[in-house]
Specification:
The protein is 32% helix and 29% strand. It has 365 residues and is α/β, with parallel strands linked by helices. It has two domains: 2-66 and 93-162 and 272-352, FAD/NAD(P)-binding domain (3-Layer(bba) Sandwich); 165-271, 2-Layer Sandwich (D-Amino Acid Oxidase, Chain A, domain 2), CATH 3.30.9.30. It has an eight-stranded mixed sheet with strand order 3-5-4-12-13-14-11-15. Strands 6-2-1-10-17-16 form a six-stranded mixed sheet, with helices on both faces. Strand 1, helix 1 (10-21) and strand 2 form a beta-alpha-beta unit. It starts with a strand and ends in a 13-residue tail after the last helix.
């Protein structure tokens, strides 16, 4: 059996590593050559950390990640609203995790510069994936791991109906040793109590921190039609937007904004879609954001992608018939994914319509 993975991000690489560890012929195809630049950071729950430890079990590779043991919620004046312990959460830079995963899969199993174009059929069966560079990869099973805008998903099911998240997010990374040490191990979030506006900080190392601003665009936004690609003023306007919305927030927030390079920051228009009725068609199956997208409030996206890879691999080992394996994989994952989609929407609604009792913006199991 040969498995062709379409997408070499976190989900695709985890899939490739699991299959390779079980002596299954696998080829991971990525649209670009990995470079340790770009992207930002995210939180990972116990389940994702367990997957990473399993993948690196027989390796002497030093694993990335920085422990986050406390969640601190503060008001815009810096007053503490609540402080709670966190069990087995870590913060990862996306580039660090990708670099680690790339080292766990032999180069001979990774093909770069391959952008998926379409499937090739013989006798009404998919036998190969074709790429925009003219290359083809033949296989028995194909796994779509090409992200939220998945072309593989579109080829199987057509366009999905994305639901606007109604909340936008700005993200960035700064170097500030004093602040990083002061907040070491803490996920600190400043939250307006009467409107949808918050600012979060998480150290990724002894000198570096990831930050984010979540906001209701009705409070202020960059004018429609202005994007990073269409206007040289985008990053200047983004800087001004953050300064304006966060003008009443405490000194830590202003310190971050003053040290941030807004040329590397961007606005993320959050969105999701309802649980698909299936994750597969014929001999093609979806994992990660290609299969499901939830709003970012749960911090579950990366963990779910890694769990998909683990569970799908186990199902392929348990069921020689790929249709039964894919059905078992969906049955195992569907309820949890639906819960996270709904949780993200509930947390979004609480964020946009704050009440006296705050909900912790993290999955709890």
């Amino acid at each position: 059996m040969k498995v062709v993975v379409l997408g070499g991000g976190i989900a695709g690489l985890c899939m490739g590593i699991y299959l390779h560890q079980h002596d299954i012929d696998v080829c991971v195809n990525e649209r670009q050559v990995f470079t340790a630049v770009g992207g930002h950071a995210f939180l990972m729950h116990h389940d994702g950390i367990t997957v990473l430890n399993e993948l690196a079990n027989e390796s002497e590779l030093h694993l990335p990640g920085r422990a986050v043991h406390t969640f601190m919620l503060k008001d815009p004046d810096g007053g503490l609203i609540m402080e709670l312990p966190l069990e087995d959460w870590q913060c990862f830079k996306r580039t660090d995790l990708l670099a680690c995963l790339n080292q766990l899969l032999p180069e001979s199993h990774i093909n770069n510069n391959r952008i998926f174009s379409h499937f090739i059929y013989e006798d009404q069966k998919i036998v190969a994936a074709a790429f925009l560079n003219g290359e083809r990869e033949y296989g028995d099973i194909f796994i779509g791991a090409d992200g939220a805008n998945s072309l593989v998903r579109k080829a199987l099911f057509g366009e999905v109906k994305f639901e606007p998240g109604r909340v936008k997010e700005v993200v960035g990374i700064i170097e500030h040793a004093e602040l990083a040490n002061l907040l070491n191990g803490k996920f600190t979030k400043f939250q307006q109590q009467d409107k949808g506006l918050s600012f979060g900080l998480i150290p990724t190392s002894g000198i570096e921190m990831v930050w984010f601003m979540q906001y209701d665009p009705l409070l202020g936004d960059i004018p429609d039609g202005i994007t990073e690609r269409t206007s040289e003023q985008y990053h200047t306007l983004l800087h001004g937007l953050c300064l304006n919305l966060l003008k009443d927030f405490p000194v830590e927030v202003k310190t971050v904004l003053n040290h941030n390079d807004f040329q590397t920051s961007y606005i993320w228009n959050t969105r999701d879609f309802d649980l698909l009725p299936a994750f597969h068609s014929q001999n093609v199956v979806l994992i990660g954001d290609a299969a499901h997208v939830a709003l970012p409030f749960t911090s579950a996206g990366t963990t779910n992608a890694m769990l998909d890879a683990k569970i799908l691999c186990q199902c392929l080992l348990d069921y020689p018939d790929h249709d039964k394996a894919f059905s078992a994989y969906y049955q195992e994952r569907a309820n949890s994914i639906k819960e996270h989609v709904n949780m993200g929407r509930n947390l979004r609604d609480s964020f946009l319509n704050p009440v006296s009792e705050f909900v912790i913006p993290l999955i709890n199991k």
